[in-house]
Amino acid sequence: MNIPGQVATQKQIPLDLGIEIQRDVNGIEMGVLDNGIPYLTQRGLSGITGIARNAIQNITKEWEEHWSDVVLGKDRISFFKQYLNSKGFNEPKLHLESIQNGVVHYAYPDIVCMAFLEYYAFESKADSATALENYRRFAAFGLRTFIYDALHYVPSDKWKYYNDRVSLLKDSAPVGYFTIFKETTGLVVDLISADLTVNDKTLPDISVGLAWAKYWKENNLEGSFGQRILYEHNYPDYYPQAFSNPQTPNAYPDAALPVFRQWFRETYLLTKFPKYILTKAKLLPGGAAEAIKIGAMYQPPSLS
Fold first, then answer.
1. pLDDT tens across 164-215, in order?
2. Which residues on adjacent β-strands are paired with residue 96?
3. Are 253 and 177 in contact (CB under 8 A)?
4. Backbone dihedral region of 98: left (phi > 0), alpha (psi from -120 to 50 degrees) or beta?
5. What is the maximum span of the chain, computed from C-alpha positions, in angstroms?
6. What's the pTM?
7. What letter would DSSP give residue 94?
8. CA 195 → CA 190, 235, 283, 296, 300, distances in Å?
9. Could you state, in order of their start, the residue ranges of all structural domains in the chain?
């Protein structure tokens, strides 16, 4: 998450995100993270630009050191800032860090790779033959499409995780009670439609459930509506959470439903949801900028 005034050289926390597939294709090391973001490794990026890896390392370091700078000039890091910011990328690091089998991997997203290609094809004084050839190739075809095709990667159905949970939990609510999962299905649909990968790492009903439970206790709503009860909640067997099935979250008395819906609409979506979605910024192709946009989708329209 980008915070103004933050020290740009902070250590990036490795993502709770795995590598779906990674392979060397004709000397170019590439892969796809399990949120669908295609990437090149540093070695792969060196291959398509025709420049040494230490040059990529130097630019990566410069980006971290000057990420918070406002003044832009004609130097190379200014080119990268202008190019990437115009594409909605404004992360403190040019690569994503992901842990695979206990090893940290550095993945340069496709949008960052295109910035390197354009710089070395048209801006740098270095030999640009390789970069220019590949820029023309990928500008027409699309680097994302190229990586997907080269790896024979087919994006999974983005609705699968959600639909499978809905099918499994369809009749799980006890009679006379409502569940947080059912009441937040509209939010999940909005998130998927906004292109956030909703899977075992993105469970907005947990965020809502924790916040509502706190509100329930602090306002002694049990005294007004009666006790909440535990019910059986199971995850699909391919979810990591399924290892501890059955789960036992709370179900709340139907009498409290109007209060919950008002709280959800006026408190959670307006004040807590934007903070939650920023924690998922790394799962979005557009990073923090896209997370901020999604986080604001429930804000009331303002007069210009």
1. 888 888 778 889 999 999 999 999 898 888 777 777 778 889 999 999 999 9
2. 107
3. yes
4. beta
5. 75
6. 0.66
7. S
8. 9, 22, 10, 15, 21
9. 19-150, 160-295
